[in-house]
Amino acid sequence: MESVVDADEQRALKEVAAKLAVERYAPKAEEWDRDRTAFPHEERRYLGELGFLGIALPERYGGGGAPLQHALTVIEELAKECRPAAFQVFESNTGPAQVVARLGTEEQGERFLRPIIRGESTLAVAISEPDAGSAATDMKTRAVKAGGKVVVNGGKRWISNGSEADYYLVYARMNDAPGSKAIGAVLVEADRPGVSFGQRERLMGFRGIPSADVLFDDVEVPEENIVIGPGRFRELFGAFSIERLGNATMSLAIGQAALDRTKRYVQERTQFGKPLIEFQSVQMTLADMLLQVEAARLLIRRAAADFGDGLPDSLEVSLAKCTANEMAKRVTDLAMQLHGGNGYTEEFGIERLHRDSHGWALAGGTPAMQRIRIVSELLGRSFDQRR
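The structure assignment produced for this chain is given below.
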């Protein structure tokens, strides 16, 4: 049964999330960024108590069963002030938890989704490897059935929430078939013997969202942890398109926050005896910022139009993500220019928005790869990048 967008409910969620972001998380966001502090567990549980971690997840596991748009609304409002807080809602509603909800078994839903929705546990997705980033099908990590178990060996890189998450949805090769035909996904608990982590990366942005290598050395999990077996790669990466919508929304929030702060600043700041907004060049720049933010918003809105239990249109998602990612980089850069020297300080928060904008453009498929995907979808054919 399809969920229906309730405009009043969505508006109410937006108001609650905006208030929470400004009052609870904005005062801490700069400190968490500066100290590279992972989002506190008690705060995650608080988001769970509010129901934010299960907005778009099935009611039978304790979720809200609401349409994805409701979750995207909350992600945007939180991300305007604090990306680590928004990331918790992102991971549970648009990230790997959605893959488990849509493609996994009822038993997996009970065992993994319930604690995620309550904020007691987190699930990270593990796809990229040192030699398999954009070329995901080059992955070498293996998950092989053996005597009622699955044995996982390999290593994953650029894992957001790596070393922090309780579970990992590991994309791996499950047999010797070539290319994508062997790839499936299995759930691996972080406390299984043989799971270890590299040092946390010192990233330019994403500082409250830990990132680290995840290593698997003869890690055994039960066969019941297989979410999807080999031969269903299109379904697996189709579900990943939901995460790309969450990613695009993070970029949208960054662009909107930069626009909002700049709109206030140019009306308050004076130079040559008059407010900055009185200068035509400032007006042109502000107009460009608004044009880009709204274009991204409308593309995201179209791609997120309620798709019920199905998957969003891949072309529409790629258009939205690519546009939003690049918009956030450009708009935060323009915001920094209009803030002048103040934009280059930590005090005004613009440089933090700009640093984070680059991270979201890299995550989940770079703009360059999205463009290739866009053309593939447009023409209805694939392109072999190895030739």
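Interim note for the steering committee: The first strand starts at residue 123 and ends at 126. The CA atoms of residues 63 and 372 lie 35 Å apart.
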